[in-house]
Amino acid sequence: MKKDAEEWINRYVDAYMVVTRQINARLRDIFGEGLTNDQFLILRLIAGQEQCTSTYLAEAVAVGKSSITAIINRLDEAGMIQRTRDENDRRQVYLTMTAHGESVYRTCEKQMQEVISPYLFHFEDDKIEQFIVMFEKLAFLMQDTGGRSN
Amino acid sequence: MKKDAEEWINRYVDAYMVVTRQINARLRDIFGEGLTNDQFLILRLIAGQEQCTSTYLAEAVAVGKSSITAIINRLDEAGMIQRTRDENDRRQVYLTMTAHGESVYRTCEKQMQEVISPYLFHFEDDKIEQFIVMFEKLAFLMQDTGGRSN
DNA sequence: GTGAAACAGTTCTACACGTGAACTATTATC
DNA sequence: GATAATAGTTCACGTGTAGAACTGTTTCAC
Question: Alpha-carbon distance A116 to A126, whole Å?
Fold first, then answer.
C-alpha cells in the first residue's frame, strides 16, 4: 500500500460521505413524490442506452437483477417505462421511457442541475475540469472490474 | 448558471454514480454479515466525535432522526454501541462504541482501505491530493447549507 | 413559580431498495 | 434431443427512509 494511502482514503471517505449524502438529501427533497433518487438514476441509464436491458442496469448500478426488477416494476406501474421483448431473442426485454416518463425525467434533470450548479461557482473552471476528469478516470477503472450475477 | 455548468454536472453525476455504486457494492461484499455500509458510516461518525448524539448523526448524514434511531437500535441489539444519558441534560443521549463495536469497526476500516487503495496506484500523488482537496472543499460547502428536523 | 414553547429522542406505519434462492421461459451447445 | 447457459421474475426477509404522533426534559416569558 502506498505510504499516504491510508490518510488519503480516510479523507476521501469522509468528504465523499458528506457530499453524496447531502446531494442525495437535496435531490430527495426536490424530486418529492415524483421520483426516488434511484428511480431517477435508472431512468438516466435508460435514457442513455439504446436497447437497455435489466442485466445492463444491474451491472451499471452494481446490484442484483432482482433489485432491478423491483424498481422496473414500480416505474412500469407508474406508467413511466415500457418493456418490449426482442422478437429474435425472446429472453431479452428492452426498456424504454414512455412520454410521461420522459417528461418526469426531464423535469427532475433540470431540478438536479439547479441544485448542484450553485456549488460550481465557488471554483475556477480548470479546477472543476480537473476534478471531473479525475472522477471519470476513477469511474472508468471501477467499471472495468465489476462483476456479479443474479 | 455558468456556461458549461450543465455539461459538467452531467459528467459529474455520471461518474459519481458509477464510483459510489461500485464502491458501495464492493464494501457490501467484504463487510458481509458483519455490518452494512450505513452502519459502518454511523460507527465512523461515532468514532470521530466526542459525545456523539442522534441529532448530530442525523445532520451529518442528512437524514431524519427516526432513521438514526432505527440504525442505532440495530447496532445496540448487536452489542456494538451503548447509549448513555447526560445527567445534566437528561434529554441528550450520548452514543459510544463497545469493545465489540470498536473491533468490528476497525476490521471493516482495514477492509475498506484494502478495497480502495489499489485504485490510487493509477494516479500521481499531486493529482490525488488535488482531487481530495477539491472534494473536501465541496463537502465543506455542503455542510454549511444543510438543515432538517424530525 | 407556572404554563407554554422548544428540544432530544422514540415509536409506529408504510414504502423503497437490497439480497439470495428458486423458478419460468428461451436459446445455445454438443 | 438432452443438457447447459442465459434473461428475467417471484418470493421471503432485512435494512433504511419518511413523517406524524408521542414521551420526557429543559428553557423561557410573564
Answer: 18
B136 touches chain A (CB under 8 A): yes
Which residues of B fall within a CB distance of 8 Å from A143?
A: 18, 22
Contacts of B146 (CB under 8 A, 6+ apart): A22, A25, B59, B62
Q: Which fold has domain A5-143?
A: Arc Repressor Mutant, subunit A (1.10.10)
For residue B34, what pLDDT is reported?
87
Residue ranges of alpha helices (H) inside chain B are: 5-31, 37-47, 54-60, 65-77, 99-120, 125-143
A87: its cell numbers: 422478437
More confident residue, B25 or A149: B25
Write the CATH number of the domain with boundaries B39-143.
Answer: 1.10.10.10
Is the per-residue pLDDT at A85 higher than 70? yes
Cβ–Cβ of A24/B62 closer than 8 Å?
A: yes
The ranges of chain B with pLDDT < 50 are 147-149
Burial of B70 (0-12, 13-18, 19+ CB in 10 A): exposed
pLDDT in tens, A100-143: 999 999 999 999 999 999 888 889 988 999 999 999 999 998 88
How far, in Å, are A37, A94, A149, B16 from residue A52 at the CA level?
19, 5, 17, 20
Phi, psi of A73 (to 5 degrees): -60, -45
Q: Is some CB atom of chain A closer than 8 A to the CB atom of B115?
A: no
Whether residues B142 and A122 touch (CB distance < 8 A) is answered with no
Given pLDDT bands bounded at 50, 70 and 90, which one contains residue A3?
low
CA of B75 to C1' of D10 (A): 31
B123 is written with which cell numbers? 494516479
Strands A81-85 and B93-97: unpaired
**Extents of the domains making up chain B:** 39-143
Distance A41 CA to C15 C1' (A): 19
What is the pLDDT at residue B147? 47
